[in-house]
């Protein structure tokens, strides 16, 4: 199957499949890559505490020559409205909107946690945000929120959890959050150091899912999988060269879907902690699939198995 290349994820370089596992090209993230120390960075969630080291700085526009910090901004209608509805955001953040959006928020009572809007014109708002930000007349300067503990997601062993092994492209991660929420996943687990902030382009791509779906960040994914196994979870990793298909590998047990980066796939040590590796069959002959699309397919198949 074909190899997927997450262009913004990691620097290129072909990796061979780990010994004892079939090699070849693949349709989903493949097992392999270097065994690393597995440290990694982020995650907000409802009910979490703000990170004190990432407070938004005062002032409107950045100074001359300064670049806005995307990690402290949410923009776009869906991400901003989801943040306004999140009780964890109460009393924090700076809401900046155009006049028509301010009227919409007031009319439809879209700021239940008491945020007051600052009204600016569209060009001014554009200048306050990173280049290329499609703000739709809404932006929210915030303190990033901490994630939940792994046990908070996993203690009631049922359903599906998604684990991301060193995915760093904001568009891909945001799209996976969106699919995970749509298919009823319990939450997402990421590595503490190799993950983008749940803000900016990632939050925009998630369409607000980062404010609603619990996310746990851990230091070591292999140890997290050991803990999840002890709590009754079964891990299935995606590997396009695997013998089993997703349909064959998945069942109704509580499942952790492990997705690797498009370039390197699921790393060897992480793959060794999965009970099964599975591929997405591609009879169409075009053997290439973006990791976020692969995640959506895997989540659909897992949800179908969970429903019996």
Describe this entry's structure for a reader.
The chain has helices spanning 77-85, 99-107, 122-128, 150-154, 170-182, 200-206, 221-230, 246-249, 268-271, 291-306, and strands at 73-75, 94-97, 117-119, 138-141, 160-165, 187-191, 215-218, 234-238, 244-245, 255-260, 276-279. It is an alpha/beta fold. It folds into two domains: 52-141, 60s Ribosomal Protein L30, Chain: A, CATH 3.30.1330; 150-306, 3-Layer(aba) Sandwich (Alpha/beta knot). The protein has a seven-stranded parallel β-sheet with strand order 7-6-5-10-8-11-9, sandwiched between helices. Strands 1-4-2-3 form a four-stranded mixed β-sheet.
- The total strand number stands at 11
The 3D shape can be described as elongated
Report strand order across the widest sheet. 7-6-5-10-8-11-9
Total of domains: 2
Provide the residue-averaged pLDDT.
82
Secondary structure class reads: alpha/beta
- Helix and strand sequence: EHEHEHEHEHEHEHEEHEHEH
List the helices and strands and how they pair.
Blueprint: E1 73-75, H1 77-85, E2 94-97, H2 99-107, E3 117-119, H3 122-128, E4 138-141, H4 150-154, E5 160-165, H5 170-182, E6 187-191, H6 200-206, E7 215-218, H7 221-230, E8 234-238, E9 244-245, H8 246-249, E10 255-260, H9 268-271, E11 276-279, H10 291-306
Parallel strand pairs: 2-3, 5-6, 5-10, 6-7, 8-10, 8-11, 9-11
Antiparallel strand pairs: 1-4, 2-4
Task: Provide a quick synopsis of the model.
This protein has 308 residues and is an alpha/beta fold. The protein has helices spanning 77-85, 99-107, 122-128, 150-154, 170-182, 200-206, 221-230, 246-249, 268-271, 291-306, and strands at 73-75, 94-97, 117-119, 138-141, 160-165, 187-191, 215-218, 234-238, 244-245, 255-260, 276-279.
